[in-house]
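Journal club prep, notes for RB
We'll compare a predicted complex against what the paper describes. Inputs for the adenosine-5'-diphosphate case:
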Amino acid sequence: AVAARATELTKVYGQGETQVVALDRVTVDFRQAEFTAIMGPSGSGKSTLMHCVAGLDSFSSGSVRIGDTELGSLKDKQLTKLRRDKIGFIFQAFNLLPTLTAYENITLPMDIAGRKPDKQWVEQVIQMVGLSGRLGHRPSELSGGQQQRVAVARALASKPDIIFGDEPTGNLDSRSGAEVLGFLRNSVRELGQTVVMVTHDPVAAGYADRVVFLADGRIVDELHEPTAEAVL
Ligand code: ADP
Ligand code: ADP
């Protein structure tokens, strides 16, 4: 099944002389239970693609669907609900709430959605990302790497259909990074989740089922069963 699909997706920033075509008629499928890495030079449109497919950014033309839902057909409220119900985000900037503890940050999306957390799963996620002794700390009391783990745990805790990650291991040392990637990998296998991750790191891309390469707002290559060596 297709978890998300972009069809002829075009995104133009600005107008006239300052216009930038960030995405140029991109068509791509993200299948259920597939882990995709998006790679490409800086400015090639990776973040824009991810934001548009995740329903965080508007686009200029083309279409995006999540599951069976066309994003273009949704009102803002419906789009917000869809994001809450189906999508997990791992951003580099963490987006953690400073006044909440790590544990509260992790369960916040479910609290907002009025959903009961699967305690066993949340516990498993917390252990896996190595946050067990830090749950009562606020973000300012955590290192960058620990904050990133909170962001990862938050994205996984609600068992979303799709997880979007923007350099999800960018702030982690290589060992923690490998653990998080292994966990995403497992989560795809065990829960049938779909993961879409923007990364510069060939080692990270090696955890994916496939790599989609962008250049100048277009998909220029695709690699299945990538190895870090092949991506380099
Ligand atoms: P990547 O993630 O591959 O580095 P981006 O998707 O961030 O690329 O950017 C693609 C292009 O769109 C770049 O040329 C960038 O300068 C431009 N761009 C991104 N965001 C904006 C914005 N908010 N306003 C204007 N141009 C933007
Ligand atoms: P610290 O981070 O100070 O070492 P803990 O990690 O033991 O402390 O937990 C701090 C707080 O996180 C607890 O007071 C509780 O509110 C919350 N917490 C931790 N684990 C759980 C859990 N399994 N279920 C619900 N709340 C928890």
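Talking point for the session: The mean pLDDT is 92.
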